[in-house]
Amino acid sequence: MTLQNYVGGQLVASSGSEYTTVNNPSHGEPIAHTPHSTVADVDQTVAVAQKAFLTWKATPVLKRASILFRYKELLEQHFDELTALVTRENGKTIPESQGDVRRGIEVVELASGIAQLLKGGRLPNIAGNIDGETSREPIGVCAGITPFNFPAMVPMWMFPMAIACGNTFVLKPSEKTPLTAMRLAELATQAGLPDGVLNVVNGAQEAVERLCTHTDIAAVSFVGSTNVAEIVYRTASQAGKRVQSAGGAKNAMVVMPDADMDSTVRAIIGAAYGCAGQRCMAGSTVLAVGPVADELVERLKSAIEDIALKATDEHPDSGMGAVIDAVACERLLQTIDQIEADGLTLVADGRQDLPEAGYFVGPTLVDGVKVEMDVAQTELFGPILAFGRVRSLPEAIDWANSTGYGNGAVIFTKDGGSARYFKENVQCGMIGVNVGVPAPMAAFSFSGWNRSFFGDLHVQGEEGMYFYTRQQVSFTRWDNDYVRAQGW
Ligand code: NAD
């Protein structure tokens, strides 16, 4: 099946002549082909979105919200279908895909209450008979460029808030996982969203570059790897757009000697190997402080032995799915070869006992890692967990801060003082205390720092609303001559 674009509520063929094959990662079999849309395709889509903006921005806010409310209901009705689609194109386990869709629906819920967020401020009688007030106004056509790892949630971080605020939207989903995005757009039309308000243009670099420079695009939201996030940030901001651009990460999990071992091990396993390690909030380095290290390694090793690698679309009990494609699989297996060649200890070796088909890499645990090593500094984006042994909490914090990223960091402890010291000194935007993956739900913004985020206002929450609106201030003078003339 060759995909088309979704423009003005209709399927429109792309004029691109190159394609990316979408494979089901569990089997390595092709399920669709994504066209690489051209500049002309993007221009045509933006023109449709620009036209739709003129009426959509004037649509009463409660009418916009009621469409989102219906959309939420429709997403609930299609929850199992969407979940299966995510598993099919991304390879996640069914519970992980359920989480992906659920987190997206939560943003639609937030956007349904947009009237509350959009209320401006008013200061009456700031001078004789003059009232001042502020309002939040939509900005125009907004673009969203998304990664493969959350085919439902990441697009829904963006477009529900953007359209609730009165903007129209052009989504460029990952060429590796475009099927969920297409279905999300079709369902939005079914919910009553007018044609042209939400559009999908499939493609890769050429389409992204055009979206970042097109004069009729007001704002660009990007989520993906740090290198591309930085390019998108520079290109689009140089073209005069507001940009929020989220990148990669290397998130540390610090375990204090007083941590509760059972819950800590469960949380680390979930954070490191959930979604096969392909989460920007994945815990990719464990830092064991002092004497806790030996017991922790042993317990992680035994928990890893219970993770069953199976095709996620056929086995709902699969403990971990495949990684996204053959390139990622090969890269990760070679990384494990290199780790072995460097003389590090493979407590668990993800090259062993792999299913015959599909892009599987097993859960891998590497002991003896030092802060300066590649495995401690580079985002590997797969199920490879680095284990470092440190003497103190300050040493763990220095390690966590050394990577230059700033998405997440977590601490496991029973001591509030240690947790507070950690929060105050670790340089990142999302902190977990006895929580493995501190990914914010929709009411909070997704707050990466440093090289994990370029821009100012983050996705979701109140900042999401600020990003997709601009402030208008007005001063109104009504003299009371008539009222006085009446003798009132
Ligand atoms: P990616 O950077 O390869 O691709 C992301 C998007 O950018 C895709 O739509 C792709 O088509 C486009 N793209 C790729 N190369 C491009 C180029 N040279 N020029 C213009 N556009 C280009 O990322 P990915 O592999 O799909 O996703 C994984 C990455 O995303 C990881 O680094 C992960 O940490 C990150 N991520 C970050 C967050 C966050 O909130 N910080 C969330 C999810 C994923």
Give a quick summary of the entry:
The protein is α/β, with parallel strands linked by helices and 488 residues long.
Describe this structure in words.
Helix 1 (39-56) crosses helix 8, helix 3 (79-90) crosses helix 4 and helix 10 crosses helix 11. The termini are far apart. The longest helix is centred in the N-terminal third of the chain and has 19 residues, at 94-112. The protein folds into 2 domains: 5-248 and 448-474, 3-Layer(aba) Sandwich (Aldehyde Dehydrogenase, Chain A, domain 1), CATH 3.40.605.10; 251-433, Aldehyde Dehydrogenase, Chain A, domain 2 (3-Layer(aba) Sandwich). Strands 14-15-16-13-12-17-18 form a 7-stranded mixed β-sheet, with helices on both faces. Strands 9-8-7-10-11-19 form a 6-stranded mixed β-sheet, with helices on both faces. It is α/β, with parallel strands linked by helices. It is globular, with a radius of gyration of 24 Å. It has 17 helices and 20 strands. The protein has helices spanning 39-56, 61-77, 79-90, 94-112, 114-118, 153-164, 179-190, 205-213, 226-238, 261-273, 293-304, 326-341, 374-377, 393-402, 416-425, 461-467, 481-485, and strands spanning 5-7, 10-12, 19-24, 29-35, 121-127, 130-138, 141-145, 168-172, 198-200, 217-223, 242-246, 251-255, 283-289, 345-348, 364-369, 384-390, 408-412, 430-433, 453-455, 469-477. Residues 145-150, 154, 172, 174-175, 204-205, 208, 223-225, 228, 231, 246-249, 280, 379, 381, 407, 446, 448, 452 line the site of nicotinamide-adenine-dinucleotide. Residues 145-150, 154, 172, 174-175, 204-205, 208, 223-225, 228, 231, 246-249, 280, 379, 381, 407, 446, 448, 452 line the site of nicotinamide-adenine-dinucleotide (NAD).
